[in-house]
Amino acid sequence: MLTPLETEALLLSLRVGLAATVFSLPVALLVAWLLARCRFPGRHLLNGVVHLPLVLPPVVVGFVLLVLFGRKGVVGAWLDQTFGFTFAFNWKGAALASAVMGFPLIVRAMRLSLENVDTGLEAAARTLGSGRVRVFATITLPLMAPGILTGAILGFARSVGEFGATITFVANIPGETSTLPLALYAYTQVPGGESPAWRLCLIAIALALAALFASELVARALDRRISGRTP
Amino acid sequence: MIEFEAEQALGDFRLAARFTTPSAGITALFGRSGAGKTSIVNAFAGLLTPSRGRIKVRGDVLFDSSTGINLPPEKRRLGYVFQDGRLFPHYSVKGNLLYGARGDAAHFNQVVELLGLSALLARRPNDLSGGEKQRVAIGRALLANPRLLLMDEPLASLDAARKAEILPYIANLRDALDVPIVYVSHAMDEVIRLADTLVVVDAGSVAAVGPVEELTSRLDLRPLTGRFEAGAVLRAVLRGHDKAYGLSELAFPGGRLRVPFLDLPLGTALRLRVRARDVVLATAPPQDLSIRNAFAGRVVEIRPDEPALMDLRLDIGTRDEPVYLWARVTKRAVEDLKLKVGGPVHALVKTVALDRPSPGYAHPLGDSEVS
């Protein structure tokens, strides 16, 4: 049904999107916690930096990533020498670009849900003998689960759709960094690429619908769980 | 003993409270909204850290600013029943009850039984009525096996019917479990019904501490304790029934009181409030009157209230055991009868004035408290 090239682009997109989301979640949770619960100097600066990718042209983000994480970049060179690990021109770089672009969306969703968690419930849990860590694991985290899910879906969707930062940072290499949007873009640049472009377009729509549908199911289950109503 | 001392500035409000109360029975923190009752309870629980002070419960120091001791809330082992319940919405009732539970199945079953929770265990908090929620919250706090149970206006968000549903459960707790309770309230009827010791809180400090009977009869506390339905609280024991006339007779040191029939066993200890405005004064023993309850005593204190009114505190007890009554009469009556502090007086209480479920009216205190 799908050509090998289409399968490759689809699987690559999924891999990039999942990696970007999974690695973003814990960092985003920490940042959301800092922004929602802590008062410290530089809080507004942190908030601004986190939101930058939302307002900057993606090409700018890609360029900054290239400068920092490219093979000769400040961080990139160090990573290469120390761990033999590089983001340059591979799918990991695509995942990094996607993660940075989706990060503010994940943080926003998490922060919102964290701010809605009643701190009175956490206080009650502490009077019942739970330390801070157990309170977070048993009260805070479950109650903000819908926000985490929303953040994950938004981040994943952003990753799958990410174009500008990715192509600037890691170029458009088939099988390595050529995700669905990049592959589609490549087809639009060659004569006779219109019908394969359409097929990729439909695949992208199907993927988006599937993600939305899945998230809806999980969201409903979570809502039932924390609504406090007897099933 | 429970010792509390704390100072803390909270914006414009300043908490500087200090009291000691027995570590048995129910201690009521009574005062207006904003008097600082919740701050005191939060300081007990460790949810508020005083800048200075010392908190000690049954020999264990929970907080002491001079030695730097400040146990975190989870180490204090105090049960806290919040005004709004604060049940965890993502746990079932059983999950909530077990969240902080220490102790075995027998303890669990005892608490579930005591609070009538067995039918609710599988339910979720948001499917419970307000009264059921508070019962679960009380159970959850008790199952953590606390050394002290804090209750911050647990009935305030409930309507009268729900209150009436929960009050007996709380009264039962005191008798069934050896857990002292600090009970915050701004409703005098709850205090009279439940409390043994009263702590009157006003503007961040403690205005008075003592047995409920003593403080409710103190005229100087009237602005704080007696704004509505003011009256002294008496302790008495059920001594006799007069079925033919539908009356019961209560005995207190120095006298007997007839009240409408009480369907309780003889010997039951009771507490009842005699409202100040239901007490009539006379200088001679009454004759040819319909009033059956007349007590000889003397005037202990006279205090003017509103322009035309006077509050009088009377002692109608024995030489060894004073029993105080509070009467509110007009200034004119005090002058006409030439009532003076130390002078003799006869207090008359209409039986019919007690013919209503006066708060605490039929609250059995338990044999241990019969004096």
What tags apply to this protein structure?
heterodimer; A: 231 residues; mainly alpha; MetI-like fold; globular; B: 371 residues; alpha+beta; Rossmann fold; OB fold (Dihydrolipoamide Acetyltransferase, E2P); 6-stranded mixed sheet
Which CATH architecture of chain A would you pick?
A: Orthogonal Bundle
Whole-number tally of structural domains of chain A: 1
Spans where pLDDT lies below 50 across 5 or more residues of chain A = none
State the major sheet of chain B. 6 strands, mixed
CATH superfamily of the largest domain in chain B: P-loop containing nucleotide triphosphate hydrolases
Overall pLDDT metric of chain A: 92
Count the beta strands of chain B.
20
Distance between the termini of chain A: 42 Å
| Biggest β-sheet description of chain A | none
Largest interface, counted by CB within 8 Å of the partner chain's CB? A-B, 23 and 31 residues
Order of neighbouring strands in the sheet with most strands of chain B:
7-8-9-3-10-11
Predict the CATH topology of the largest domain in chain B.
Answer: Rossmann fold
Specify the CATH architecture of the largest domain in chain B: 3-Layer(aba) Sandwich
Q: What is the count of DSSP helices of chain B, taking H or I runs of 4+ residues? A: 10
Distance between the termini of chain B: 22 Å
